[in-house]
Design brief:
Structural class: mainly alpha
Low-confidence stretches: 1-5
Number of strands: 0
Mean pLDDT: 82
Radius of gyration: 21 Å
Number of helices: 8
Helix content: over 70%
Strand content: under 5%
Largest sheet: none
Shape: elongated
Order of helices and strands: HHHHHHHH
């Protein structure tokens, strides 16, 4: 048992030291790394928005429900917190997937190398299972968001008597910003997986979440206070 504890402690200490070293290295010149994450996340966000537009154009509106920002309570800090809370849950989900990638790609192989027998076998088999879990979570998140946002978009477009493409255009400033923010951890995971740099993912999780939070605050504020006016101006009912 003490040998197992020593192996676990070694993996933990090694992972923390490596993470701190990576953060210090990025701190010397952070922009090249951050730029790559932002570009990757933005591409994922644009792909999702395209999928949402297609879904919204083909889905039946949710008659009887009003999701539009021009209907209901006036803009308030409380609404900003509600939007921020929903987006933060998605960000947290993606951050956990990124941490799982770190565990599967960096710590499990290191731990397996210091074990023998059945324990070694279990750790070796856990790695592909963890990879499948991360990929499954990513696909599930994108699928759920496509369907949910597609239904909401279809209903808002119907309520406001505008086309889905026009609706997407009015929502693009905050939608692109918030989706880019929530997909930052997954962009880091994708880039690390292609390069085999699994040991960077824990540090990447910390940095991407820190970058995403202020982006989400700006996006939520825009959605609550600015988007209703843009949507009202685009709608024939608002003009």
């Amino acid at each position: 048992m003490s040998w197992v504890m020593d192996a676990n402690q070694y993996v933990f200490v090694h992972g923390m030291r490596r993470t701190r070293s990576i953060l210090e290295h990025w701190g010397d010149n952070p922009w090249p790394v951050i730029r790559t994450w932002l570009l990757g996340s933005c591409l994922i966000a644009l792909a999702l928005l395209t999928a949402v537009m297609i879904a919204a154009s083909t889905m039946t509106p949710d008659y009887g429900f009003h999701y539009g920002p021009t209907v209901g309570a006036p803009p308030s800090p409380h609404l900003v917190l509600e939007v921020l809370g929903r987006n933060s849950l998605v960000l947290a989900f993606h951050a956990v997937a990124c941490i799982a990638g770190f565990i599967a790609g960096a710590t499990l192989p290191l731990s397996a190398a210091r074990r023998t027998g059945l324990s070694k076998f279990i750790h070796e088999k856990a790695r592909p299972i963890a990879f499948v879990w991360v990929i499954g979570c990513t696909c599930l998140s994108i699928s759920i968001q496509t369907v949910a946002l597609g239904l909401v978009g279809s209903t808002i477009a119907w309520d406001e008597h505008i086309s889905v493409p026009l609706l997407m255009l009015t929502a693009l400033p905050h939608a692109l910003l918030e989706l880019t923010a929530v997909f930052l951890p997954l962009a880091a995971w994708t880039i690390a997986s292609r390069k085999g740099e699994w040991d960077q993912l824990l540090a990447a999780t910390v940095v991407t979440v820190a970058i995403a939070i202020p982006m989400l605050i700006v996006a939520a504020t825009w959605e609550v206070y600015v988007w209703p006016s843009i949507l009202s101006a685009a709608s024939p009912w608002g003009s």
